[in-house]
From TrEMBL:
Species: Planomonospora parontospora
Protein name (Swiss-Prot/TrEMBL): MFS transporter
GO terms for cellular component: plasma membrane
Lineage: Bacteria, Bacillati, Actinomycetota, Actinomycetes, Streptosporangiales
PANTHER family: INTEGRAL MEMBRANE EFFLUX PROTEIN-RELATED, STAPHYLOFERRIN A TRANSPORTER
SUPFAM superfamilies: MFS general substrate transporter (SSF103473)
Main location class: membrane
Keyword terms, alphabetized: Cell membrane, Membrane, Transmembrane, Transmembrane helix, Transport
Membrane topology: Multi-pass membrane protein
Pfam families: MFS_3
Keyword Ribosomal protein appears in the UniProt entry: no
Domain of life: Bacteria
Cytoplasm among keywords: no
GO MF terms held by the record: transmembrane transporter activity
Length: 431
């Protein structure tokens, strides 16, 4: 009879398989269901209001610049206010912050729905509504790890990510048809109702929790909170690498910003440009939904962390082939594959949560989210300017090449710092 080597259980030659959480487990948690349902409802309303605002402003001004300016206001407030306001989620009860933000946004959007509201007032109201999304998102992101532990957090994040993408596609798809039927003012009123419904869901579905415990006395100023959050995030090499992984999206979301000029290159029929634009803009989010499902369902927790580097490279590598000027069908496949690679953000998000103290998560998530929006907005802005000069196809390819170089560098940095986090994941896995 063969001898059994000491230190290894008989008949076992590998570590026990890591248990993966299922979507059913996550949805069985009532508080998460409330958080998820409220988010889905308000996201649909947001997409509807974006279409309504574009139509309303263009009807009033007949100015593409004015219409684009109002849309740009959805990027500016989180970039400016995110680092300053997100720290509120670390000093006040997170449930209360979300409810207050939802109620205030409902009131502000209701004012936008009043016929005759001036263009200047609309801009101010839009700015304030989007500004309130910063503390709301920070509070929700900080609360989620308290509701979902271990791999359930990844499954819940994947579900929320898929919901975000689906709401984006569905909201834009049905927004135009709804506005044709009800008009932009009623559409804005419907958006106000979704915010109020989200607040009611949070009131009834999420239990009260005390404000996060913090050391020291008194409440520091917003500026001090922002500086402390920046030191936390950028002073830790692991967190710094994970943040840069998140901001990599500035390269691979650039194609969405120039989808219309890209569509104009792919078709000679002006009437088909809007249809092709819709296909292009939907391809990356569709890939993200598929990638998030496969990545969270079939890859082990530690496997996700190990594969982050090459998955990040996958988001950018297919875009380089756009330099060959392929036909529409091939472009759709390339952009879809890029979206699939974006599922690495789930692993980066989960690793970030494990490295940030619970009482500092609000500020940390707010800083990352602000940088994320800045990277997206700046990438689209630079891409649009470059596409005017060189055309959309080489610009997308160049963004892919630059992103691949950055992703490869981050992958090497991550290889050196991921071991501790992987060991922590294995230690947390049930026996």
């Amino acid at each position: 009879m063969a001898a059994i080597k000491p230190g290894r259980p008989g008949g076992r030659h590998r570590r026990p398989a890591e248990r993966q959480a299922t979507y059913g487990e996550v949805l069985a948690i009532g508080e998460f269901r409330a958080l998820w349902a409220g988010q889905a409802l308000s996201l649909l309303g947001d997409q509807l209001s974006r279409v309504a605002l574009s139509v309303l402003v263009f009807e009033r001004t007949e100015s593409p610049l004015a219409t684009a300016s109002v849309y740009a206001l959805t990027y500016l407030p989180p970039i400016v206010g995110g680092p300053l306001l997100s720290g509120l989620a670390d000093h006040y009860a997170r449930r209360r912050i979300m409810i207050v933000c939802d109620v205030l946004r409902a009131l502000l959007v209701a004012l936008m729905a009043i016929p005759g509201t001036s263009f200047t007032a609309l801009c101010v109201l839009v700015f304030c509504v989007v500004l309130l999304s910063a503390p709301f998102s920070a509070a929700r992101a900080a609360l989620l790890p308290e509701l979902l532990e271990g791999d359930r957090y990844v499954a819940g994040s994947a579900l929320q990510n898929m919901t975000n993408q689906a709401a984006q596609m569905l909201g834009f798809a049905i927004g135009g048809a709804l506005i044709m039927g009800m008009g932009p003012y009623r559409a804005l009123a419907l958006d106000a109702a979704t915010f109020m419904a989200s607040a009611l869901i949070l009131v009834s579905g999420v239990r009260r929790r005390p404000a996060p415990a913090r050391s020291g006395s008194g409440r520091p100023s917003m500026w001090k909170m922002t500086r402390a959050g920046a030191r936390l995030v950028f002073g830790d090499p692991r967190l710094r690498t994970l943040v840069l992984f998140a901001w990599l999206c500035g390269f691979y979301v650039l194609p969405e910003g120039i989808a219309t000029p890209y569509a104009a290159v792919l078709t000679d029929d002006p009437q088909r440009v809007s249809f092709v634009t819709g296909l292009l803009m939907g391809s990356i989010p569709t890939g993200t939904v598929v990638g998030a499902f496969l990545f969270s369902r079939y890859v082990s927790p530690s496997g996700r962390l190990r594969s982050m580097g090459w998955m990040a490279m996958l988001t950018c590598a297919p875009l380089i082939l756009c330099a060959l000027r392929p036909p529409l069908a091939v472009v759709l496949v390339l952009w879809f594959v890029s979206g699939v690679g974006g599922a690495y953000q789930l692993a980066a998000n989960a690793a970030f949560v494990r490295c940030v103290p619970a009482e500092r998560r609000g500020q940390a998530f707010g800083l990352v989210q602000s940088g994320l929006l800045a990277a997206q907005g700046l990438g689209i802005l630079i891409g649009g300017a470059a596409a005017d000069e060189f055309g959309p196809e080489p610009v997308v390819a160049l963004a892919g090449a630059a992103g691949l170089l950055v992703a490869a560098t981050l992958a090497m940095l991550w290889t050196d710092s991921r071991k501790e986090i992987i060991e922590r994941v294995r230690a947390e896995a049930p026996a």
